Amino acid sequence: MSRTPLLLLVTVLATQGVAYAQTGSAPAAEAAGDDALKVDVPRAGDPDRPRVVAIQVEGNRRVEPDAIRGALRTKVGSFFDPLLAQDDIKGLWRLGFFSDVQILVDDSDPQRLVLVVRVAEKPAIRSVQIRGNKELSDDDLKDIVDVKPFSILDMGAVRRNSKKIQDKYVEKGYFLADVTPVVDKLDNNEVAVFFDVNEHAKVEVKRVTFVGNMKVKDEDLRGVMETSEGGFLSFFTSSGTFREEVFKRDLSNIQGVYYDRGFIHVKVGQPQISLSGDKRLIYLTVPITEGEQYNVGKIDFAGDLVGKKEDLFRKVTVSSGELFNRSKLQRDIMAIADVYYDAGYAYANITPQTTVDADKKIVDLTFDVQKGEQAFIERIEITGNHKTRDKVIRRELRVYEGELFSGTGLRNSRQRVTALGFFETVDIAQRRGSADNQIIVTVNVKEKPTGTFQVGLGFSSIESFLLTAQVSQNNAFGWGQTASLAAQISSLRSLVQVSFIDPYFFDTNWIFSFDYFRQDLDYYGFIRRSNGGDLTFGYHLTQDLMLHLGYAIEQVEVEPGRSSSLGGSDVLLANRFQNGLTSSLRLTLNWDQRDNRLFPTAGNYQSASIEYSPDWLGASFQFVRVNANSRWYFPLFWGIVFKAQGSLGYIHSLKGSLPISELFFAGGINTLRGYSLRSVAPSVRVGDSRNPDAALTSFLVGGNKQLLFNFELEFPIFEKVGIRGVVFYDAGNVYAQDENWFASKTQSGPIGLLHSVGVGFRWFSPIGPLRFEWGIPLTKRPGDEDYLFEFTIGNFF
After folding, report:
1. Are 391 and 380 in contact (CB under 8 A)?
2. Does the pLDDT value for residue 727 go beyond 90?
């Protein structure tokens, strides 16, 4: 079949890299080939508008003919339209599968046309390989390369990946690294893609110099920069690494330092960057023109005011006469905006109008407010939750459909959903609804695994070997419930525990939980065996305040420990080694404002409980026990978090003496670090009843009062792999029943406390937080080591 091109359409489509052609002679439709779609269309209609009776595809090897036909607007049975055919060529080209596209027409029968779609496929990628990389491994780079084997070659994507690899090298300090993409042709219309890396040497920032800063110290400017000079520990801390995007942010931060000190006309010039002769070191020079300092003059409001002007002034922390401070001004703008957002004005705009008096060096501020229209929440959409049910998220929200928009409500909602611990990220966005006064709120979450199955064998400095097995689900069946089955065994304890918590029992504000356990604990001097459980109902009084009432029952058995030096004198302590039943009611009040329940970095947690074990509940041990705990978290700078905890405990016997199994013991990695496990407690002098001549020894018997303080500075070391360092200070003591509060007979000083300091590091690993800590006892007693290393699994507070 001979084919003659239509020159007009060739000219139109030349820029697309394709051709359109028509033939003067044609075989019958039946000769279109096995691939052709054939329909017998009667000759009717306008004789000048022929119908398409078949579409034949040529040149395709990987792309299915039906996929090509499906991309065409021209269909079998439709009238042929040259302009529509032009669109078909463009559509096929946009698929990205072809390097050449042609449409040819067999018009031997003027009323029955056969379209021939001739394509040349782009080659397929057989393999993708990175060559020349030594400092960064294939694993470091594979996640950023999205060109994959068996896909169609896209040179634009290859070039983008080459740039991404180069950017990764720049991020790691290889400022001079270059990446060249290479495409090798193979047989069967396939190619091999290579990314050839020339790493060059890693460039280290040797010196950062500021020029022109007369009124602000170099140290203050370096303090806001992420880019820093290299040093001895650069290999571990990544200091000295130069990244262009980070350095641009640093320049903005430097400008911000001046803005916060009244230099409203400061200029941070174009930095000079120079390399050493061996291209291993980089020198940065930042020119600064400071200008004059300005104070704040008059402060006023204008525009659409809500309420009294005096109420808005109370939201403003900037005051007349002080140095102009941009950060402070921005916080004030947000505080004023919150007033409007919480009144439903979602589109309120607060613009600070400034009037500068260059002679007096003052800046007058006027907060101009355009409140717009009040907006209501039309709909709340939940996205990204493939497992978690919508209601688990909705019940944590503090904005509601049909109510006025609230900025504070949105922030509280995001914080509460994040605090669930079920999601990696929580993003709340808003957009216009069906009208200007309607808003659609979208809560987008990215779920993370909440179920674990762990079997492990470990070693603890406290308990020697440690065998653990646990099946837990913190978001059981997507209902937000927590269920777990755990077993542990070590040289000092064995435990089997089953627990369940439903924070919104039957979709109400009630909380339900139960717990069953069986455990043996070796306190060195005695062994405590117990078997029991508890049943608790609670209620959400407010979004942060919860009240719990529970019943607990526990059968306790006590005997001298295997490691005890008590010998035959257990008869002398028979009144303390008591077996019996604890049957008690416990009332607990919790106040929780932490930003994350598992790994908090901000907020606080308060808890107080009273436990009552009376004879009318069948209790053998009759007592009242009070516990209080206060935890505070303060985010500082550079990812550092300051943590503080105080704990107080008191137990009072209602009948007879208190058994040793119910008293307080402190010491160890979870109470007072630097002192061995459960070694901080009152003691009595005992001998061996079988040998009256034996020397008396001290036996720890526990106390009925406990006071503990823990202070930590936790800081990042290798944040990407979850390794953080910690320095700490602990103080505390346990007081005997015949001692007054905070008046130890054995310890002097303020409130009779023992003190310790130490350092450590933590790895937030896939199996849980691992803690490695070295404690130094400052109040050293006979038998205490100079320092004590401890290792354990689990978070502290």
Report:
1. no
2. yes
